[in-house]
Each structure stands twice: as C-alpha cells, then as structure tokens.
Amino acid sequence: MFSLSTTRAQCLRRAYPRSIRQSWRFQPPRRHATATAIPTGATGNTDHVEPTESLSNVLESGFIDLKPNEGLLFFDNIYPVFSAFLDTRFIPVRLDQISSADKLIKYSIPKEFPIKVNQVIPRVKEGGAFVKFIKPANTIDREVEQQMQNLLQQNKIRPWYSPFGQIRCFLVEGRPWLEDLQRFPAARLKVEFEGQDVSPEQLYTMFRRFGRLIDINPLPRDSKELPRYAYLTFGKIRSATAARNCLHDLRVKTADGKETQLRILYSRTVKAHTIRKWIIDHPKIVVPIILAVIAAIAIAVFDPIRTFFVEAHITHSLDFGSKAWTWFKGAASTYLILNKKSGTEGTGDLSVLWEERKETVETVKSWLLETTETFIVVQGPRGSGKRDLVLGDVLKDWNYTLVFDCEPVQDGHGDAQIIRAAAAQVGYRPVFGWLNSINSWVDLAVQALKNVALSQRQKIDKDISLNDDEWLEAHPEKRPVVVIDNFLHRTDAAGEKIYQRLSDWAALLVSANVAHVIFMTNDVSFSKQLARSLPDRVFRTVMLGDASPEAAKRYVLSHIHSGMSDEEKSKEIEELDSSIDQLGGRLTDLEFLARRIRTGEMPAQAVSEIVKTSANEILKLYFLGDPAKRSYTKEQAWTLIKMFGDGKEDQLRYNEVLLHGLFSKGGEEAIQALEQAEFITIVSAEGRPWAIKPGKPVYRAAFRKLQSDKVLQAKLDIDVATELTKTETANVAKYETELTTLAQLPSKPSEIAGRVSYLLKKLQASQMKIEQYEKEIGALKKILQSEF
C-alpha cells in the first residue's frame, strides 16, 4: 500500500470531499465484488466498517444467505452502470474507492432509522449495492422498503457522477446471484420460467415498480423451446439492473395456483441489427442521405482533381503539342533521330487557299479584342474550312482555347454516354455517369476558365485596384476562347435540349466576361437557337462559302507539285482548270481530288470518280431509307434535281420552285428540310430567301450524272407523275363535289353561272393534266421494260 503523489493528492483535494479522499488508496485490480460489514447491534450507518469473514462464503457460492431476522435491500445508483465496450478491470475498483458504498448508504440511512445494518455488498458493474439488515421483531419488510423510499424521496441524495439522478431503494424478494462473469447490464431482460408460464399481466405487475416498461414479448404458446421465457424491455438500464437483483430466483404463483421460479438474465440487443433494420425499414430517408453523403464526398475529393484536368485541358499543358513537349522533342532530336524526313509531305500550303480570307481572319481577331458581350458565329456549309479558319488562323497564337465538339455528344445513346462525351470535351475526369450530370461539368468548367484567365494577372500592374470581374472586363485579350464546333449538328428533340444547355452556358461565359465564345455551324437558322440565350444581343457573324476557282487551283497545285517532274506538272495543269470548274471550291472535295491525283490518276478521271461517288451518296441519303424519317419526299428531291439539270444557271429562283405542283402544299417546310440535310443551300438577300443552290458544288455534276441514268430517271419520273396525278384527281373530286352542291339548288339563279363555268374549266384543265401524266407514265414504263 502506498499513497498518491503530492500533485495527485492536491488535485483530489480540490475535486472531492475530504470524507471521500480519505478512502482513496490505490489497489491492484480485482474482479470480485467487495463487501463491508457493520457490527451487529449498530443502528443506521457507522463512520467505519470492516470486512467480515463471511464475505468469502458469499463470493464462492454467489448467493447471500439470510437469517430469519434479516432482510435485504438493493440500493440503486451507487455507481455508474458499465456497458460491454468499457474496460471494467480497473475502473470499478477506483470508483469503489472514490464513492464507497458504505459512505453513500451512511448518508442514505440515518441513525434513527429502526434497522440495524449488518453488511454492505457493492455491485459495481450493475451500479448498486446490497444492504443486509437486522429487522426488529414484528417488522414487515415491505414497511422497511416503503419508509426507506419515502426517506430517499425527501432527502434526494445524488451521487457525484449523476447530478440529475438520485439513489433508489428496493426490497430484494428473490435470491440474487452475485456473479462476476463477463456479462454486462442491458435494458432488456430474459426471464426464464421453471414451471408454468407467467402471464404478461402478472409480469407487468411485478416489474413495473422498478421503472417504465417498453415492451413484454412472451414466447409463443406453440413454441417447443425449453425453458420457457419472456423478454422484458425497460426504458432505462438501471431499472433492469434493479429488477434482476431484486427478483432473480423468485417463486411466484401462476393463475392455476402452481409455483414458477424466475431466472433473470440480461439480454443485450445487437445494435448493428437494429441499425440495419432501421435502414431497411426507412429507405425514403436513408437513400437520400446516403446519396447526399456520397455526393459530398465526391465533391470534396474529386472536384479539385477535375478542376486540375479541366484547366490542363484549356491550357494544353498535358498535350503532346504543348510548349514543354515541343521543347523536349527539340532537345532530344539533337541526340536521337526523331525526324528522318524533312519537308511537309502530304500537306499542302493552306495559305494559298486562305489568301482571300485574310480579311475575315483579321475581322474575327479584332472581335476577340473587344469587350462586347456577345457570340461570334462562323457559318458555312460542311467542308468550307470553318475549323481550319478558326483554329488554324484566328486562334493560332491564342494561348488558352477550349474546343467543344457537339457531334460526339449528340451521337451518344443514353444520358450516361452523353454525359461522358460532354465531359471528355472539356477534360472533366473522373466521370461517374450515375452521379454526374451536365450541370456538374458546366459549373466546374466556368470556374476553371475563370481561374485560367486570372492566372495571367500580375501581382503588380496598373490595374491592381480592380477586382477580378473588373479586370476581366478590362482585359479581353486575356480571356480564354471557347470554340463550339458542329453546333446544330442534329435538330431532333433530344439534340435541341443539349444545344439549349450549351447556348445558355456560352451566354453565361460571355456575360460574365469569363471567355470569348465562337460557334461554328452548318445551319443557317442558328440565330433562332442562340437568341433564346441572348435575346437582346446582335451576334458577330461570318459567312464562309466555297473557294474561288483561282484559289482552288492554287490549293490543289500546292498538294500535287511536290515530287513531280515539269512534264507531269504541265500535263496535269492543262486538265486541272476544267476539272476544278466541274468540281467547285469545296475544301473537302479539293483535298479528295489532290489525293487521287497524287496516286497517279489524271484530273479528269479523278473528278469523274468523285462525281460518281457523290451521285451514289445522293441516292443513299435522299432517296433510300425510311420515308417516315424525312420531312420531304423523294419526288420533291428529284424535282429539284431535274430543275437544276434543265436550267443553264447554277441556281434556281426560290419562289419559282414553290410554284411547282409538288411544292404547292408545305413547300417551304420541305425546302428547309432539304437544306438541313445539306441537299441544297438557300441563298438569302435583303432578309428573304432569294435563290437555291446545290448543297455542294460537285452536286451539280452529280445531278447530271443521275439524270443520265435512263432507268433511274424513268422510275423517279413515274413517281413524280403519280404524285401529280393524285393531286389533280383530288382537285377533280373537289370540283365535282361543289358542282353537285350547286346543281341541287331548287332554282338555277343566274348568279351562279359564272361559278359553274369557272369550276368546269378547272375540272377540264385538271382532267387534261391527268391524261397527260398517264401518257407519260405509259411511255416511262416502256423504258423500264426495255432497259436495265
């Protein structure tokens, strides 16, 4: 035995009363309960107690033996109740020393109380203590319990560790089992019956006085499990500990008069199962919480990573074409042969083609240096060189660009693929299709673009007094450029939602001065879509057409002259003029021509193959397939082909086409659909449609190629004549119906004579057209019968 150190003792003097400090001594840990004895004959509590020799018998047997003149009380709330997750090997011993049971019971039982305390047996694990007392003659145990409870209710003795709880006292009616097993108190008791079952009503009467009962679950009557039992759940653990210590091994009489012995055990509820059951039973609450937690974790963990990748995508710091990689490649080429061939084999001099577009390039560059909050739109047919103009010339020296291609996004199937494709365009990774949305990368891309723009701001400059937004507005040359390519690539309902979201995002960028936005589109009706996002702005628009014949010739020559002799050059130049006149100035077709010439074909032969390929393309795209998916008919497309072939000019009058019988109803919608399909191009002048041109210059020659096929022409002419016959037949039926109505009038007034004459003339004209169409159909059928 040894006392505590000086520092430790000083702390204890401040924290605990002197009476408690005197009993504090360090002892080695022990598992069994301690007991103190009060000498027989003492009244109430005494100032000093000594252990008795009879304690060893109690610990060995586990039961407290009572003489006829002795009783047993259980005092609750003497110690804290310990659960299984606490280490109780040392704490109960020290708590026993800090708050000894004999001292608290001394405060609880005054000297004038009419009992003689014989022994105090602490139950540290269960938070209480047994008090064995000698009762006077003719004393009823219940009266002692009642008087003790009244006394405790008046004095309200509270232990130091529980300022809101008070000590309680109960009469021990059973035979408590003083075990020191690794079993810990719980609010749920398992009451086993040795004998007949005890009814829930009787159990409630017996156990309710210890505390509020939550539930009583008896074993089903048809169960064959032995021994029989019932579960009792209390609201507090202390109520369960008091009930077990007071009623264990009690013999009670059942309804049939037989005795049943109660065996009471703690039954711990597995909280994991309870939590799991609650989660399963409340999915409407749990699922949103889980998703919110996952989303919060994803934002906290992955958003910085995604921001890094988006910024790297804008600055091109991870591209092989970046300045760092170019420097490394140049340095390594000094020692390693990375480029064995010199020159630019297989590539032509684009400057010869864009010489006439220098003014357009300079115009777009000047727009990027202005603070106007609007879009820049580069519109032109497919293959007109929009991408090369913007990325190759306008943005050649611009440091930070972000190219968003709508085509792979629009071609995605399902929301997950669309989100992944859109995220790839801005460098947003990693992507979780089930968790991310379009808004995820849109918001992050805006922040990344702003960070990139502000990264160019110097700590010391003349605009140091400006905030970030004012600085971005004052320095348009520092903003990144967002290029949205293939805008309005498809015009179905699903695509319209994507385009609307992109245009709203672009409007946010230009309105906040975060970035410049350039749209590249083939669709001439782009203003309708963009006006929804910026309704009060005028767009900066550039219209690109085909190259002039002279520029197209120089472009092809720049491709084919490399590695050729002078004789071969002069021979091909002679045929090139007529070939380019037939092919036109579309960039993709010129590249195709140059590629075929380089393989050894003559220009005339190469153009012939290109025209043939274009003719097959027209048949596949505009005449074959499901007619329900088209907003025009093949008869309308064939009519335009014939009108282009019959005319001497390269364009048709827009309103003249509408006068044709097949375009009399819904003609403008059909023409617009054909333009969307890139079959034709509508030329506007002074704000109205003015003329119609082929979708590509080479289509003019392809149209003639199709007309030269007699069988194809005869078949499609029959279809056109059949449609026109149906139209005239419907007109005849309409005229006949009106004439019949007029003939049924009771009298024949002279006023209707003019109307009747008019209808008869219209009917005759329609009938003559029907007869003419039928003759043409008959002649065309003979061609089908004689030609292959």
In whole angstroms, the N-to-C terminal distance is 122 Å
CATH third-level topology of the largest domain:
Rossmann fold
- Please indicate the count of domains: 5
How would a textbook summarize the main sheet?
5 strands, antiparallel
Strands of the biggest beta sheet: in what spatial order? 1-3-4-2-5
Structural descriptors:
transmembrane; alpha+beta; RNA-binding; mRNA processing; 5-stranded antiparallel β-sheet; Mitochondrial escape protein 2; elongated; 5 domains; Alpha-Beta Plaits; disordered N terminus; 29 helices; Rossmann fold; 788 residues
Structural description of this entry:
Helix content is 48%, strand content 13%. The protein contains 29 helices and 18 strands. The chain folds into five domains: 23-170, Alpha-Beta Plaits (2-Layer Sandwich); 188-269, RRM (RNA recognition motif) domain (Alpha-Beta Plaits), CATH 3.30.70.330; 301-343 and 358-543, Rossmann fold (3-Layer(aba) Sandwich); 549-619, no CATH class; 632-786, no CATH class. The model is unreliable at 1-43, 45-53 and 332-348 (pLDDT under 50). By secondary structure, the chain is of the alpha+beta class.
